[in-house]
Specification:
Number of strands of chain A: 4
Oligomer: homodimer
Helix content of chain A: 25-40%
CATH topology of chain A: Translation Initiation Factor IF3
Radius of gyration of chain A: 14 Å
Number of helices of chain A: 2
CATH superfamily of chain A: Alba-like domain
Structural class of chain A: alpha+beta
Strand content of chain A: 35-45%
CATH architecture of chain A: 2-Layer Sandwich
Shape of chain A: elongated
Largest sheet of chain A: 4 strands, mixed
CATH class of chain A: Alpha Beta
Distance between the termini of chain A: 19 Å
Largest interface: A-B, 22 and 22 residues
Order of helices and strands of chain A: EHEHEE
Chain lengths: ~90, ~90
Protein backbone atom coordinates (compact mmCIF):
# COMPACT_ATOMS: atom_id res chain seq x y z
CA UNK A 1 0.00 0.00 0.00
CA UNK A 2 1.30 3.37 -1.08
CA UNK A 3 1.50 5.98 1.69
CA UNK A 4 -0.20 8.38 -0.71
CA UNK A 5 -3.39 6.39 -0.39
CA UNK A 6 -3.90 7.20 3.26
CA UNK A 7 -6.11 10.24 3.89
CA UNK A 8 -5.83 11.69 7.38
CA UNK A 9 -9.05 13.36 8.50
CA UNK A 10 -8.62 16.54 10.54
CA UNK A 11 -10.24 19.95 10.84
CA UNK A 12 -10.95 20.75 7.21
CA UNK A 13 -14.48 20.57 5.83
CA UNK A 14 -15.83 17.17 4.74
CA UNK A 15 -15.67 18.09 1.05
CA UNK A 16 -11.92 18.77 1.24
CA UNK A 17 -11.37 15.16 2.27
CA UNK A 18 -13.84 13.84 -0.29
CA UNK A 19 -11.71 15.51 -2.94
CA UNK A 20 -8.55 13.96 -1.45
CA UNK A 21 -10.17 10.51 -1.52
CA UNK A 22 -11.25 10.89 -5.13
CA UNK A 23 -7.81 12.14 -6.15
CA UNK A 24 -6.16 9.18 -4.43
CA UNK A 25 -8.48 6.77 -6.19
CA UNK A 26 -7.87 8.40 -9.54
CA UNK A 27 -4.10 7.98 -9.26
CA UNK A 28 -3.97 4.52 -7.87
CA UNK A 29 -7.28 3.17 -9.02
CA UNK A 30 -7.27 0.82 -6.09
CA UNK A 31 -7.69 1.42 -2.42
CA UNK A 32 -7.78 4.31 -0.02
CA UNK A 33 -7.62 4.34 3.76
CA UNK A 34 -9.26 7.05 5.85
CA UNK A 35 -7.62 7.58 9.23
CA UNK A 36 -9.08 9.71 11.99
CA UNK A 37 -8.68 10.27 15.72
CA UNK A 38 -11.01 11.54 18.42
CA UNK A 39 -13.79 13.79 17.26
CA UNK A 40 -12.67 13.55 13.63
CA UNK A 41 -13.94 9.95 13.64
CA UNK A 42 -17.47 11.14 12.86
CA UNK A 43 -16.13 13.19 9.99
CA UNK A 44 -14.26 10.19 8.57
CA UNK A 45 -17.54 8.27 8.42
CA UNK A 46 -19.20 11.28 6.75
CA UNK A 47 -16.42 11.44 4.15
CA UNK A 48 -16.73 7.72 3.38
CA UNK A 49 -20.50 7.96 3.04
CA UNK A 50 -20.50 11.15 0.96
CA UNK A 51 -17.94 9.79 -1.51
CA UNK A 52 -19.78 6.50 -1.80
CA UNK A 53 -23.27 7.98 -2.13
CA UNK A 54 -22.59 11.06 -4.21
CA UNK A 55 -19.45 10.52 -6.23
CA UNK A 56 -18.21 6.95 -6.68
CA UNK A 57 -21.11 4.56 -6.54
CA UNK A 58 -19.02 1.40 -6.94
CA UNK A 59 -16.87 2.27 -3.93
CA UNK A 60 -17.13 -0.39 -1.25
CA UNK A 61 -16.05 -0.33 2.36
CA UNK A 62 -13.56 -3.18 2.65
CA UNK A 63 -12.72 -2.96 6.30
CA UNK A 64 -13.24 -0.74 9.32
CA UNK A 65 -11.11 -1.06 12.41
CA UNK A 66 -10.95 0.87 15.64
CA UNK A 67 -8.14 1.16 18.15
CA UNK A 68 -6.77 3.27 21.00
CA UNK A 69 -3.58 5.33 21.01
CA UNK A 70 -1.81 7.02 23.86
CA UNK A 71 -1.04 10.66 23.21
CA UNK A 72 0.74 13.16 25.38
CA UNK A 73 -1.68 15.86 26.47
CA UNK A 74 -0.82 19.54 26.92
CA UNK A 75 -0.22 19.14 30.66
CA UNK A 76 2.39 16.42 29.99
CA UNK A 77 0.23 13.47 31.06
CA UNK A 78 -0.78 10.64 28.78
CA UNK A 79 -4.30 10.23 27.58
CA UNK A 80 -6.05 7.63 25.50
CA UNK A 81 -7.59 8.61 22.22
CA UNK A 82 -9.66 6.39 19.94
CA UNK A 83 -9.00 6.12 16.24
CA UNK A 84 -10.67 4.59 13.23
CA UNK A 85 -9.37 3.40 9.91
CA UNK A 86 -11.79 2.88 7.06
CA UNK A 87 -10.42 1.11 4.04
CA UNK A 88 -12.33 1.55 0.81
CA UNK A 89 -11.83 0.26 -2.71
CA UNK A 90 -13.52 0.53 -6.05
CA UNK A 91 -15.45 -2.65 -6.23
CA UNK A 92 -16.57 -5.04 -8.80
CA UNK B 1 -30.75 -10.79 18.60
CA UNK B 2 -32.63 -9.30 21.52
CA UNK B 3 -33.56 -5.63 21.17
CA UNK B 4 -32.18 -5.16 24.66
CA UNK B 5 -28.70 -5.76 23.35
CA UNK B 6 -28.64 -2.62 21.25
CA UNK B 7 -27.12 0.40 22.97
CA UNK B 8 -27.95 3.72 21.32
CA UNK B 9 -25.23 6.31 21.86
CA UNK B 10 -26.43 9.86 22.46
CA UNK B 11 -25.53 12.83 24.62
CA UNK B 12 -24.73 11.13 27.91
CA UNK B 13 -21.12 10.76 29.06
CA UNK B 14 -19.05 7.87 27.72
CA UNK B 15 -19.11 6.04 31.05
CA UNK B 16 -22.93 5.91 31.07
CA UNK B 17 -22.83 3.90 27.85
CA UNK B 18 -19.95 1.74 29.06
CA UNK B 19 -22.16 0.73 31.97
CA UNK B 20 -25.05 -0.01 29.59
CA UNK B 21 -22.79 -2.22 27.47
CA UNK B 22 -21.53 -4.13 30.48
CA UNK B 23 -25.06 -4.62 31.81
CA UNK B 24 -26.22 -5.91 28.42
CA UNK B 25 -23.34 -8.36 28.28
CA UNK B 26 -24.01 -9.55 31.80
CA UNK B 27 -27.62 -10.40 31.03
CA UNK B 28 -27.17 -11.99 27.66
CA UNK B 29 -23.56 -13.06 27.87
CA UNK B 30 -23.35 -12.80 24.14
CA UNK B 31 -23.33 -9.82 21.85
CA UNK B 32 -24.01 -6.13 22.02
CA UNK B 33 -24.46 -3.61 19.22
CA UNK B 34 -23.57 0.04 19.62
CA UNK B 35 -25.53 2.36 17.34
CA UNK B 36 -24.73 6.02 16.83
CA UNK B 37 -25.52 8.82 14.41
CA UNK B 38 -23.71 12.00 13.44
CA UNK B 39 -21.36 13.40 16.02
CA UNK B 40 -22.11 10.59 18.46
CA UNK B 41 -20.16 8.26 16.16
CA UNK B 42 -16.88 9.29 17.80
CA UNK B 43 -18.39 8.57 21.18
CA UNK B 44 -19.51 5.11 20.09
CA UNK B 45 -15.91 4.28 19.17
CA UNK B 46 -14.75 5.66 22.54
CA UNK B 47 -17.30 3.47 24.36
CA UNK B 48 -16.21 0.36 22.47
CA UNK B 49 -12.55 1.04 23.18
CA UNK B 50 -13.01 1.95 26.85
CA UNK B 51 -15.05 -1.19 27.58
CA UNK B 52 -12.58 -3.37 25.72
CA UNK B 53 -9.45 -1.84 27.23
CA UNK B 54 -10.56 -1.15 30.76
CA UNK B 55 -13.37 -3.51 31.67
CA UNK B 56 -13.83 -6.62 29.53
CA UNK B 57 -10.53 -7.67 28.06
CA UNK B 58 -11.92 -10.62 26.09
CA UNK B 59 -14.42 -8.41 24.27
CA UNK B 60 -13.85 -8.49 20.53
CA UNK B 61 -15.19 -6.25 17.81
CA UNK B 62 -17.06 -8.59 15.50
CA UNK B 63 -18.22 -6.16 12.88
CA UNK B 64 -18.39 -2.45 12.17
CA UNK B 65 -20.65 -1.03 9.49
CA UNK B 66 -21.44 2.49 8.38
CA UNK B 67 -24.43 3.81 6.50
CA UNK B 68 -26.39 6.95 5.69
CA UNK B 69 -29.92 7.79 6.81
CA UNK B 70 -32.24 10.55 5.69
CA UNK B 71 -33.67 12.54 8.55
CA UNK B 72 -36.09 15.42 8.47
CA UNK B 73 -34.36 18.58 9.65
CA UNK B 74 -35.97 21.33 11.70
CA UNK B 75 -36.79 23.43 8.63
CA UNK B 76 -38.71 20.52 7.10
CA UNK B 77 -36.10 19.54 4.50
CA UNK B 78 -34.35 16.19 4.38
CA UNK B 79 -30.74 15.81 5.29
CA UNK B 80 -28.33 12.93 5.22
CA UNK B 81 -26.76 11.75 8.41
CA UNK B 82 -24.12 9.05 8.78
CA UNK B 83 -24.43 6.27 11.28
CA UNK B 84 -22.26 3.48 12.62
CA UNK B 85 -23.04 0.16 14.20
CA UNK B 86 -20.35 -1.63 16.15
CA UNK B 87 -21.10 -5.18 17.10
CA UNK B 88 -19.06 -6.67 19.95
CA UNK B 89 -19.03 -10.04 21.65
CA UNK B 90 -17.22 -11.73 24.48
CA UNK B 91 -14.55 -14.24 23.66
CA UNK B 92 -14.23 -16.20 20.45
Amino acid sequence: MDQGNIVYIGRKPVMAYCLAVMTALKHEDSEVILMARGRAISKAVDVAEVVRNQFISDLVVKDISIDTEQLESEDGGMRNISNISISMAKGK
